[in-house]
Amino acid sequence: MTITLAVLDMAGTTVADDGLVERAFTDAIGAVGVSERDDRFPAMLDHVRRTMGQSKIVVFRALLPEAEARQANAAFEAAYGRLVKAGHCEPVPGAEQAIKDLRAAGVKVALTTGFARPTQDAIIAALGWQDLADIALTPADAGRGRPFPDMVLTAVLRLGVDDVREVAVVGDTPSDVVSGLRAGASVAAGVLTGAGVAADFEAVGATHVLESVRDLPSLLTRL
């Protein structure tokens, strides 16, 4: 099966995270009165780590009542945006070239995220990636975020892919891999540049484990 669409996660996969999510979470949870000294904080941070890659509003809803979850989510997006604007945003080494190589080979590329649209746009602008991919999607664009297959299937529909088996999904969390498997992608690969480790990906049935997204073009030539 020839791959005609690659759906790539951003933070931790194509964009270096370097702890930015946890820093933004600390600010966000503080906005609703939970400091790092609060007894609830360690368990909340552990939940954030376990749900990396998922829609952030969904993560906050698991931790807080609805009104506070919305407040924390807005504070998270604002804090992450400030970090990006302050220069704390770099591509994973080799990611940009990998995307260019994929598109040169006729593979369409979708960038996906668990962040809201303003944060995704800020990251893309900071990296100068406005024209790098064919499409960029957030959970709000698709209906639900990872681990659901919605963003993958939205990319399939919007980019006119004929068969879900022509899709490769790549990310740094088990949620990325599960979303690809649920969508019917032939490749649902985990990368080791972010939150996940090989055992995490193997546990959810990843088709491949890659050191980095930069290894994806060569993998696809071997399929």
From TrEMBL:
<dbReference type="Pfam" id="PF00702">
    <property type="entry name" value="Hydrolase"/>
</dbReference>
<dbReference type="InterPro" id="IPR023214">
    <property type="entry name" value="HAD_sf"/>
</dbReference>
<dbReference type="GO" id="GO:0008967">
    <property type="term" value="F:phosphoglycolate phosphatase activity"/>
</dbReference>
<dbReference type="InterPro" id="IPR050155">
    <property type="entry name" value="HAD-like_hydrolase_sf"/>
</dbReference>
<dbReference type="InterPro" id="IPR036412">
    <property type="entry name" value="HAD-like_sf"/>
</dbReference>
<dbReference type="InterPro" id="IPR022468">
    <property type="entry name" value="PhnX-like"/>
</dbReference>
<dbReference type="GO" id="GO:0006281">
    <property type="term" value="P:DNA repair"/>
</dbReference>
<keyword id="KW-0378">Hydrolase</keyword>
<dbReference type="GO" id="GO:0005829">
    <property type="term" value="C:cytosol"/>
</dbReference>
<protein>
    <submittedName>
        <fullName>Phosphonatase-like hydrolase</fullName>
    </submittedName>
</protein>
